[in-house]
Design goal:
single chain; about 550 residues; alpha+beta; 7-stranded antiparallel beta sheet; 6-stranded antiparallel barrel; 32 strands; elongated
């Protein structure tokens, strides 16, 4: 192939490549512009609304009565508003990015563990206090320090008492006279003074009086509260020492006031101590005290534990867990799904399709993992359990904290007394202060209203006292549809403000009467057509 032919061929190839590239770029350009135009068409605003007053709506951009720019409302915003005040919509990507997880409210048995702390104490059922029953002097003290272990029958102290000497002499005298009644009386007196039986037998055998009498331990345990030393003068009522049995111990714990109804005697308890990590003691609730500490608002609970190896010592600090009994099934949620504020409990309800709304609930008993919901939720409803605080911070700005179907039983329109504060004739709006509306749970307040076209706006001015009918014509859109202006004497002029000059209820009654009359006439004509003779008799008066 010659050189000129090669040159022409290369030029043709270059032209074809250029055409292909140009066509591709042009097509992509038009496709992008078409898609952009479609997006623009799809995202056309439905209307514009005032930032501070959702009742003020316009079909085009402009200024609100307060001088603020109107905000466009798109289709997705309108859908959210229809779901109730405070409903927010987020895309699936954002749902995944912030880690939103949901759980369902369901009925579960109340099973909770109450964790608290307590202190080890003596088992007071086995705590003995040692008191002398006569006056005297301690000549010998066998127990030297508090905490010393002792066994039953071990000597504690030796006491000299003139009264004890006299009692022994009476027994010896009765023995010498061989008077059975006196002997029995003398022995009973010595026993009442806590003289050991071995000492009495020794006196009867030797018939000699002991100047100092030894007293013995009534049970095995440890000495506590040792308040006497050798040489002390003692008398009745004085606490010499205490002897505590540590084979079983009490643990005094406290629980919160709201947990008191969950605890009862006999429930299982587990206990751990810091000084012996890894070991666990099993016990039970022994007693729930009947009074409440008015300072800490807590209830004392007494727990009982076996202490056969004597490792539990009085005044030790312990962590205890009380396993409450399973009660009837209640509507429950995981505790992390509940948002607790200073004056309200609420959850974030998942409405589906990326919509969420904060609603108020009433929480009951709170367990370790679940919380009881007394009201505000229905079984099976989905609630956000993760990232709910982020969603609540946005939804709670405008939310009424009520469920979606709470409006079903409320009327669409109500009558209320009001006073006109200002008139915006160019917008067909008024600012009015109205009294409380119990049907809608509204307090007395001042707000802006749209005035219906059938109302003569010129009849309204600042300070006008009136009865007005407020009708809900959409989500967060309220319109004055009927008014009765009060005269100077306080009476209501029912025909002074509306162009119809008649209440709507009267018109509805007339329409209903006309319908009844029309139905009766139709029935008569049908009967005449079916029975000509009957019709002739009626018209002739026969």
């Amino acid at each position: 192939m010659t050189s000129p032919h090669k040159t022409i061929l290369l030029m043709l190839i270059a032209i074809m490549l250029t055409a292909v590239i140009t066509y591709g770029m042009t097509r992509k350009y038009f496709e992008d512009n078409t898609a952009h135009d479609n997006d623009s068409v799809e995202k056309q605003p439905l209307y514009w609304v005032a930032p501070m007053d959702p009742n003020y709506r316009r079909d085009q951009p402009g200024k609100s009565p307060m001088g603020m720019d109107l905000i466009p409302v798109y289709e997705e915003n309108e859908t959210s508003m229809d779901s109730g005040p405070g409903t927010i919509t987020i895309s699936p990507d954002v749902v995944n990015n912030i880690g939103v997880r949901t759980v369902k409210a369901e009925y579960l048995p109340i099973h909770s563990e109450i964790k608290t702390v307590g202190y080890v104490q003596y088992d007071e059922d086995k705590l003995v206090h040692i008191h002398p029953r006569v006056e005297g002097w301690v000549e010998k003290l066998y127990v030297k320090a508090a905490g010393d272990p002792i066994k039953r029958g071990q000597p504690l102290y030796k006491l000299y008492s003139p009264e004890l000497v006299n009692a022994q002499e009476e027994l010896v005298l009765a023995l010498n006279r061989d008077n059975v009644r006196l002997i029995k009386a003398s022995e009973d007196r010595l026993k009442a003074l806590q003289i050991a039986g071995s000492v009495i037998n020794q006196i009867k055998q030797t018939r000699k009086v002991q100047q100092a009498i030894t007293f013995y331990a009534p049970q095995t345990g440890v000495v506590d509260n040792l308040n006497v030393r050798e040489g002390f003068y003692v008398k009745p009522g004085m606490n010499l020492m205490s002897v505590g049995d540590l084979s079983t111990v009490w643990v005094e714990a406290e629980i919160f006031e709201r947990q008191a109804e969950l605890v009862e005697a006999g429930q299982a308890v587990t206990m751990t101590l810091d000084y012996m990590p890894g070991r666990e003691w099993l016990g039970k609730v022994d007693y729930v005290y009947p009074t409440l500490n008015d300072e800490t608002r807590t209830v004392r609970v007494r727990l009982r534990f076996d202490n056969e190896d004597y490792v539990l010592k009085p005044n030790m600090f312990a962590q205890v867990t009380i396993a409450t009994a399973e009660g009837e099934e209640k509507l429950m949620l995981p505790t992390e799904a509940l948002i607790r504020t200073g004056d309200q409990d609420r959850v974030v309800l998942a409405l589906g399709e990326g919509k969420f709304k904060s609603i108020a609930v009433i929480a009951g008993n709170i367990g370790e993992n679940h919380v009881e919901i007394i009201s505000g939720l229905e079984p099976g409803e989905e609630v956000v359990s993760s990232a709910q605080f982020l969603l609540d911070s946005e939804s709670s700005k405008t939310s009424d904290f009520k469920r979606m179907h709470h409006e079903d039983s409320k009327p669409q329109s109500v009558w209320v007394e009001a006073k006109i504060e200002s008139v915006m004739a160019e917008h067909r709006m008024v600012t009015a202060t109205h009294s409380a509306i119990s049907e809608w749970d509204w307090p007395a307040m001042t707000m802006d209203f749209i005035v219906s076209e059938n109302i003569d706006l010129s009849a309204l001015s600042k300070g006008t006292q009136l009865h007005m009918e407020i009708t809900k014509s959409g989500t967060d859109r309220y319109e004055i549809t009927e008014i009765h202006i009060k005269d100077a004497d306080g009476t209501t002029n029912q025909s002074s403000a509306t162009q119809t000059n008649r209440p709507m209820s009267s018109i509805r009654d007339d329409v209903q009467s006309d319908r009844i009359a029309l139905n009766q006439a139709t029935s008569t004509q049908k009967a005449d057509a079916e029975d000509p003779e009957h019709s002739y008799q009626q018209h002739s008066g026969m």
